[in-house]
Amino acid sequence: MVAITNNKGFPLALVKAVENDSYSKGRADRSVTGLLAPPRQAALKDIHEDVLTEDVSERTFALYGQLVHLLLERSGEQDRNALTEERMFTEMMGWTISGQTDTITLTEEENWVVSDYKFVTSYKFKRNYSGELTMPAEYEQQLNMYAHLLRENGFKVDGLKIVAIYRDWSKLEAKRDKNYPQLGAETHDVKLWSEEDAKAFMEERVRLHQDAETSLPYCDDEERWAKKDSWALKATPNSKRARKVFYGSNSEAISWAMNPDNKIKRGFVVEHRPGANTRCENYCLVSEYCDQFKVIQGF
Predict the structure, then answer these.
(1) Is the pLDDT of residue 108 over 90?
(2) Is 25 helix (H, G, I), strand (E, B) or coil?
(3) What does the pLDDT read at residue 23?
């Protein structure tokens, strides 16, 4: 159990709300969301769980989960052929895996549709210049593992949905940019994998987490949310936006700028933007116990 601190002096009501978070994976080795975490991070949490602390200032995001609970409670979902916040279990490769869906709704064909509510930034579902929307991979993976859990518990699933509630939505920005979410909340369909693919993905995540308990793997770039060093070519020192960003070297940026075909005027600057391991530096409770992170930092 992670101990909650209040070093930033947050109001008592927020402290209590974080401390009283009712989330639990139940009597399981991992939850679906736990399986999506980096195996190294999860294993280190298990090893150091008795000494881990987290300040309430870093946990306010968890309150959004409680808001979803209240939203579903008030909506009366239970009264319209739906089940809310059902935690289900399955056995896989010697482990018990659990997952709690926000809502599953019975269709006229007597199949079930899984809906997961997300409080997210508008940028998460902003379309590209072609108007196409890319579903975050972790959402697709999470909902398809829920689908596998439901099948293992006798439910036939034929649809997956993300209900995105944008916590920073701007009406003015929606008018200005057609690719920005046009409403403060939207429902997005999620690709439903085959039963075989969902099972295989879940088994692979379980295997990775089980292996990490005996031999800690390194977190890869994606798991560390790593950003490489870059060099931003700017027309002037005061330019807010870069004309072009290079990931090779400073000399590569200068060579490109000096090429007459690229029509860059004199007075340009090349700004070095150091790389970062965003998850390790800002969002990992066990980074201080991680030898890999110490090596990255040069310790």
Answers:
(1) no
(2) coil
(3) 79
C-alpha R_g of the chain: 23
Per-residue tokens: 286: 């066990």
CA 121-191-24 angle, to 5 degrees, is: 60
- Say if residues 195 and 234 touch (Cβ distance below 8 Å): no
Range list of H helices, the chain: 12-19, 32-36, 39-48, 63-75, 137-152, 171-176, 195-212, 221-224, 250-258, 278-282, 291-297
Alpha-carbon gap, residue 191 to 161, rounded angstroms: 9
> What CA–CA distance (Å, rounded) separates 198 from 220?
23
Write out pLDDT tens, residues 30-65: 999 999 999 999 999 999 999 999 999 998 887 887
Q: Which tokens belong to 236?
A: 């002037």
Enter the tokens of residue 205: 């995540």
pLDDT, residue 170, reads 97
With contact defined as beta carbons under 8 Å apart, do 203 and 93 qualify?
Answer: yes
If pLDDT is split at 50, 70 and 90, which confidence band does 298 have?
confident
Neighbours of 156 (CB within 10 A): 12
Tokens of 256: 């490109």
| pLDDT mean across residues, the chain | 93
> What pLDDT is recorded for position 79?
56
DSSP string, 228-291: --EEEEESSTT-SS-SEEESS-HHHHHHHHH-GGG-PPTT-EEEEE--EEHHHHHS-TTGGG-H
